[in-house]
Amino acid sequence: MPARADETRLRGTLFLEDGTRFDGDGFGAPVRRAGEVVFTTGMAGYPESLTDPSFRGQILTFTYPLLGNYGVPPARADGPDGLPDLESAEVQVRAAIVRGTTRPHHWAMGRTLDAWLAAEGVPGVRGVDTRRLTEHLRSHGVLRGVVDVAPLGRSPSDEDLASTIRRAPEYAQEKFMEEVSPRKPSVLAQGPGPLVAVLDCGVKSSIFRALLARGVRVLRLPFDHEVPRRWEGRRVAGLLVGNGPGDPAALEATIHELGRPSNRDVVTLGICLGHQLIALARNGSTFKLKYGHRGQNKTICFPDGRALIVSENHGYAVDPASLRGTGLEPWGSNPDDGTLEGLRDPAGRLLALQGHPEGHPGPQEAGFVFDEFVRRVRRRA
Fold first, then answer.
1. Which residues of 103-137 are buried (b: 16+ CB within 10 A; e: fewer)?
2. Is the same domain home to 115 and 247?
């Protein structure tokens, strides 16, 4: 899409580690960034996707052909609940790849997508054949890549871009928790409700809000913090482990904490990465998917015959065969590829879902998972 008269013309390039190159117009920040190239099939909610900590370290391709039509919210301080307006306080992706952008028209917008990415130091490339790129990733699997955005007139060579990729760390080797997890514990909301601890490996704001809306207090903990039995005189009645970036097997401190025998008596909910970490803590195993599940129309089929549509954003999955002898049982599967979508224990203390029951962006058909978790927490509080 041609740049508007009020924009500085930029050139943008996406180069993949297998030598495939996509050239287009640049927007956002005129910088170079390397990362794992993934795609999402969501048709709306780009501000939420761009601020989702699960996308940390990744170059995000949007399959929907037109972005920016409703701009982005104005820059504001945290809300009264102490949480950012979007899913985190910053843009999490390394770069964005889009087919096209358009002028925004929305009564509540504060900035354009272009201006927002520029302010956050994030580059973007538009005018890319995202259908071809997505088909390439589906055929070859997730690839590392580099995005280079600069003023017109300077076009980097393939060797220069390939050298950037070679120098960049592998996705599984990056230390994302230092960037997305809080440094110290904090309590969200005061009141008489039961206290739920959250091991924060990059949890979306919408997950916290889903808990607060159900009348619980939230103790937000760093990813490697010990889960206390009591906090400020209050019993910790539940534990949630949510989403986040990176290879779950690399989070050894979190896995060790979840595996402590004392934590098995706590009512626990795992979401996305948390689903995987719970399996690992019980001696299960995970594996990397060829190109992941990222979008808002993913199906989960449950043993009782129900089927739900959920939002998902993950590149790893739990190996169902590894659950033998763990005390966990499957609780849902993906009909497209058969991957495991849920876990539970017969005692009723643990529930885990690979998809996102909070939606944002996406459907909230699985919101009952929060209801069931809070019901169990209140019963044991």
1. ebeeeebebbbbebbbeeebbbbbbbebeebbebb
2. no
